[in-house]
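call fold(seq) -> tokens
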Amino acid sequence: MPAAKKQQAVEIGGRSLTLTNPDKPMYPSGFTKGQVIDYYLRAADTLLPHLQRRPVTLKRYPNGVKGRYFYEKDAPSFTPEWVETFPVPRREGGPEIRYIVIGDLPSLVWCANLASLELHPFLYRVPNLQRPDSVVFDLDPGERAGILDCARVALLLKEALAARGLECFAKVSGSKGIQVYAPLHTAVTFQATRRFAHGLAEQFERRHPDQVVSKMAKDLREGKVFIDWSQNSDFKTTAAVYSLRASRESPFVSVPVAWQELEAAGKSGEASVLDFDPAAALARIERLGDLFAPVLELKQKLPAG
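ret:
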């Protein structure tokens, strides 16, 4: 993509778009907005199925990751008519929020051009706002803990879920943690998934008190992994699989990982093997396909009790 122009008219998927400031650095490493757009273009075939019919919150960085950012929930007034939106009620009442639903390549590129480095979808698909299609565990390391500690907890979590008849899949967050998804795609409520996740997190805290905490207070997390069960809510979003992240000097991607990779990382003690920049993420897609594909359709029932 040419870096010299400040504006570039392009035709994508039958839509005319104007890309602005493609040469503007988004990360201190020099990764530009043009490269952000190029990454999302190349990842689109794999990413878009995970965004279909999901309202998203855009995390926008107009001046790069070192500048001020904001969460865009309501679709801005200049949103093209061809970008799908869906009204979602506010928890506190008042006017509905008109979330963007990224259903096609032009919409994805349009969002990337807004410096939406991160894409955060809900756990439901419209119009079923009260039906999550997965139960999710967000593993967040406290001070003096890291992603390898999260990997060890994720492996224990896999065993616990398997004992309850649930297959699950892991992805690195692209920041410092790991997220574990157990797809459901059956009749279930957020109340049930939240209760299940909370109960399992508390059980882990009792069984592994030196490794795990289930309470949200940050002063309890030092040297431990917080199992964030609260993500199982109709009002919370999680960084999408294959989304860029904006937490470091260089771009890293939230990438699915095989359980064997987490085991190998834990044995080697090399946290860096769980870092994937955009080039590495695209190479993995080319080589391995979508390791998160089962999350799209695998039907499982949430255990009772």
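Residues 7-121 form a domain with the DNA primase, PRIM domain fold (CATH 3.90.920.10).
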